[in-house]
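Human: I hope this is not a bother. Would you mind checking the protein record under this note? Thank you for your patience.
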Amino acid sequence: MSLRIVDEGLPAGQSAPAERPRGRLPAYSLRVSVLEQCQLDCRYCRPGSTTTPTEKARWLAPNEHGRLARILVGRGVRKVRFTGGEPTLRPELPALVKAWGDVATDMSVTVGLALTTNGLRLAPMLPALRDAGLQGVTLHLDSLRADRIASMMGDGADVDRALAAVVAARDLGLDVKWNAVVQRGKNDDELGAMLQRAQDLGVELRFIEQMNTGSAQRYVQDTFISGRAIVAAIAADTAVQAVPRRQPSDPASLYRTGAGVVFGVIASDTEPFCEACDRLRLSADGRVRGCLYQPGGLPLGAALRAGADDDGLLALLDCALADKQSHHPLVPRARTPFSMADVGG
């Protein structure tokens, strides 16, 4: 499928996204960055990195994850997704997953545990991750073509190894999804092939619109394609019907093709979902923030290491929860450039 729709960036005059009222939510989805390092070099990510990756000595250890898990689960975290960088670069990743799973079990709370990965180091770790309580895996792969994957994702990217990890995860009974960032002139001719491969694999594919993080502006400007254009390109080849999101807070709009294949589109820049957002983020060193675009974050990890008791940690976390608000580029609020690796994808 060849995409012929040309996007020139964000629609002119687009209004700021609606926000959920301030205050605590009944439940949260937490993205836990376990490190910022990655062995790949995706063009919209690493070249725009604006900070030095957190050094190993500052990474939260499994026991520290367990301590913060009890605080966060107690405040309503019901989904946890482990990210990076590339999270499988941490050998103790199964221990981190287990720390969260053990807390949920001890508190008699159901918490979904999932992982986002490039898949290159996943297969050997899968049994330990499953035994630690992992329930879902999302693969990040931007092309099916061996002749272009390195230029898009960096040396070492391997389509066959990544897809083999998908099969291994699926065969272990994990819930598997596949994310692909769509880029004009790079992979926009592969949408149909990706949908077919996802159907063959029995996994759900989500096409992702590039995000305006401010650090790789020229690359994003040159290759940006909106979510609506992605859907229109697929609809030019097959019937496409919108279907409801599974949960209002889910980031992906869902569609079904004429062949019955369900796929998602995450269009965070042109169709922000701030009003329904329930996401929190925890950095590798324990900073918590309520928005991807929020600078800094509150130093929950530093407070823990400084000897704060549970009441002190809860008070700090409650400040973050009460202040959860949108810092989306369409909101007139100060931001600093960052790369996706800096904040956990």
